[in-house]
Structure formats: structure tokens, C-alpha cells
Amino acid sequence: MRRIVALSGGIGGARFLRGLRRAAPEADITVIGNTGDDIHLFGLKVCPDLDTVMYTLGGGIHEEQGWGRAGETFAVKEELAAYGVGPEWFGLGDRDFATHIVRTQMLAAGYPLSAVTEALCRRWEPGVRLLPMTDDRVETHVLTDDGDGGRKAIHFQEYWVRLRAEVPAHAIVPVGAEQAEPAPGVLEAIGAADVVLFPPSNPVVSIGTILAVPGMREAIAGAGVPVVGLSPVIGGAPVRGMADKVLAAVGVEPTAAAVARHYGSGLLDGWLVDTVDADAVGAVEEDGIRCRAVPLLMTDLDATTDMARAALALAGEVVNP
Ligand code: GDP
Ligand code: CA
Question: What pTM was estimated for this model as a whole?
Fold first, then answer.
């Protein structure tokens, strides 16, 4: 498996990719990153998931937090707050600001996001080719209650970060996705891949948003190579974060088997569940998806590397049953 394509959200995807890079040091890894979480703040274009992948693989991530820069300071944010300028709920640090300034400047000069991402990665040398899913603007919105008996759509970051997914989500809408095109290199990478991996990223607002770009799902399903995913849900709950809330919004139970069924056998050939979910293996296989139970907690790089190896081994099994 020399050419690997992995879709990725932020923390879950980025951490997995670190293990993947070590499990397959000789491979060409192309990462297709979610941009549905992108947001304009203070006039700057912020791409949280692309940056989390870039910082994590480039060694600049705040390890414990899982997002943002290590050794971060918040002078700019404090100064903005002193002017009464928010939002105060989105944590942008001084070091991180520089990334968004460079990105915004390049976009304003006419470079597409894919070229900007490549330029930013020249500094970070993530050891993978990081592509945004699209150069077009896609923004995930969440349909929630407006407090007056009606409904309103809010930006995903407002729902996730400001409201901590504590208000009911009735629908998740990747606004703009229908008109979006895969970024240059995306379909080519999928077409040339030996395997496509779905890391344990959020199935709805990370992987689901990437799959919502027209042509993406068809390219992956039609590539004629194994597609293997790893469950972000262990023992009936997401390992970290509030993925259960957005799963509920699309009518999917927070179980490893239900997430596999949500992707479906038309897309997924193999699925890894955690050992605590070993009793789900039968149900997933009945759905036509080859399934194995292995430890899926990314506690350290060794454990994460083993997960990546298991995913590649399962892909091999799908090819040579
Ligand atoms: P985000 O964009 O930062 O939310 O990151 P992703 O979408 O890439 O990943 C979020 C998902 O990662 C969450 O649903 C978590 O359940 C999952 N996750 C985080 N840590 C682990 C882990 O150690 N093991 C597994 N299996 N999933 C994890
Ligand atoms: Ca994200």
C-alpha cells in the first residue's frame, strides 16, 4: 500500500495520521481535510481542521489540548477584548494568529486555499500532502431552535464552541457544498490510491462534510481500492467531544456499528471497532463490511501506530480475502 489517501477532521484525524505516518513511513500519504468548520474571525480566514493536522504533524500542536499552538500566548485576544471586539469564545492565540494572517493575505492576493495550504505546509513539513477538500467556500451550519418556537441556522463553531452542542440540533447543513468542487489534486489522489482510510474523525461534521462535496463519495466508492474506517465511538460514546449530538441530528445512534452502517457497505469495505465493542463485529459484517475489534484508544504514538497498522492490514484482507 504505497499510496494512501486519508480523509480528516481535526483532532481525531490528526492524531491518527501521526500513527499512520509511522506505520507506513515509505508511503505517499495524501490527506483530504475538512474545511466545513472554517470561519471568518476578525477579518481573518481560520481553517481549524487543516491547521490541527498541520500543527500536529508538524510538531507545533498544543499536545494536551489537541488544537492550537504549543507555548501559546493571548496578547492579541486580550487587546481585542479591551476594545470590546469579540467573539471571546473562540480561542485564537498570538502564534495561531500569524497563520491566519498569512492565509488571509494569500487568499486576498488571489491564491486558492489549496495553494495557501501548500505554502503554509512548507514551514511545517507535515510529512503528508495536505489538501483542503475544496477551494470553494463551504460552511457547516446547524439548525437549532430560535427560542421563539421557530428555528434558525447557526455556524457550526457557534454551536460547537460557544454553545458546546448543548442546544438541540435538528439538522446539519454543509452550506455551499452542492456548488463546491473537489480541490485540485483531490480526485487524482483518490484515483491513484491503493487504499482510502477514514480516521476516527467525526462521521458527520468532519468525514460527512468532506463526502458532501459532489464527486467525492463517487470517486472513493468507485476507486476500486479498499476503503477502511476506524470508529470514533467506543462503548456507545465518542471518545472525546460531542459527536453523539451531531450523530443524533442525522438519526444515527452513537454506536460503532451504527456509524459503520451510516457510511454503508457501498462506501466502506472494512471497519475497525474497539475491543470493548467486539460484540458489534457480527452486526457490521452482516451489513457487508468486514470488521475487526482492536484497541482504538490513541493513548500514545505506539498505540496509534498499531491502530494504523490494523487498518492497513484490514485493507489487505479486503483485497486478498
Ligand atoms: P475535530 O475536527 O477536532 O472534532 O476532530 P475529528 O473530527 O478529526 O475527530 C473527532 C473525533 O475523534 C471524536 O468524535 C472522537 O470521538 C474521536 N477521537 C478522539 N480521540 C480518539 C481516540 O483516542 N480513539 C478513537 N477511536 N477516537 C477518538
Ligand atoms: Ca473540526
Answer: 0.98
| CA nearest ligand 1 atom 4, residue | 10
More reliable by pLDDT, 1 or 255: 255
Q: Judge if the beta carbon of residue 51 lies within 6 A of ligand 1.
A: no
| Centre of ligand 2 from the C-alpha of residue 49, in Å | 5
Query: Measured from the CA of 205, which atom of ligand 1 is nearest?
Result: 7
Question: In Å, how far are 86, 87, 89 from 83, measured between CA atoms?
Answer: 9, 12, 15
Closest ligand 1 atom, residue 160 Cα: 4
Provide mean pLDDT across the span 176-192.
98
The mean pLDDT value for 5-12 works out to: 98
pLDDT of residue 1: 79
For residue 299, what is its C-alpha cell? 493513548
User: What domains sit in the chain, N to C, each tagged with a CATH number?
Assistant: 3-37+47-58+113-134+181-319 (3.40.50.10680), 139-177 (no CATH)
CA 232 to ligand 1 centroid distance, Å: 5
Where on the phi/psi map is residue 66: left (φ > 0), alpha (ψ -120 to 50), or beta? left
How do residues 147-169 score in pLDDT, each as one tens digit? 899 999 999 999 999 999 999 99
Helical spans, DSSP H, in 35-141: 48-58, 75-82, 94-108, 113-124
If you average pLDDT over residues 11-39, what whole number do you get?
A: 98
- Choose which residue among 201, 262, 294 to substitute to test ligand 1 binding: the one with the highest number of ligand atoms within 8 A of its C-beta: 201
From ligand 2's centre to the CA of 205, what distance in Å? 7
Residue 206 has pLDDT above 90, yes or no: yes
Is the CB of 9 within 6 Å of ligand 1? Answer: yes
Eight-state DSSP code of residue 69:
B
